Amino acid sequence: MSKTRLLLEEGGVDVDILTLSDVRSPVFVAAEAGRTEMVELLRGEFGADLDLRDGEGRTPLWIAAKMDHGETVGKLIEMGKGFFCLP
């Protein structure tokens, strides 16, 4: 995670940028993979928008729940993302 932090701090990376192919943000990808610490880093330290939706209208909370990443779901809810996550 230290390499990611370095890129975010010094690389001028936009944490809310969307991929061209499937329109997903970095926090969406982290939630989909169950990377709770990465979700915390992107949101907590770099202000990533947890309401950004992918190309199909899904939120990070929705995809984390679909992929059965309970810890990530809990963290997203703790960070204020409740039930407004359906596509």
Description:
It is built from five helices and no strands. The protein is mainly α. The chain has one domain (2-78): Serine Threonine Protein Phosphatase 5, Tetratricopeptide repeat (Alpha Horseshoe), CATH 1.25.40. The protein starts with a helix and ends in a 9-residue tail after the last helix.
The largest sheet is: none
What is the radius of gyration?
12 Å
**Residues in β-strands, percent:** under 5%
CATH superfamily: Ankyrin repeat-containing domain
Number of structurally distinct domains: 1
Name of the level-1 CATH class? Mainly Alpha
Written as H for each helix and E for each strand, in order along the chain, the element string is HHHHH
In total, how many beta strands? Answer: 0
Indicate the CATH topology. Serine Threonine Protein Phosphatase 5, Tetratricopeptide repeat
- Helix share of residues? 40-55%
* N- and C-termini, Cα separation: 30 Å
Mean pLDDT: 83
Supply the number of helical segments.
5
Structural class: mainly alpha
Low-confidence stretches: none
What is the molecular shape? globular
CATH architectural group: Alpha Horseshoe
List the helices and strands and how they pair.
Blueprint: H1 2-10, H2 26-32, H3 36-45, H4 60-66, H5 70-78
Helix pairs in contact: 2-3, 2-4, 3-5, 4-5
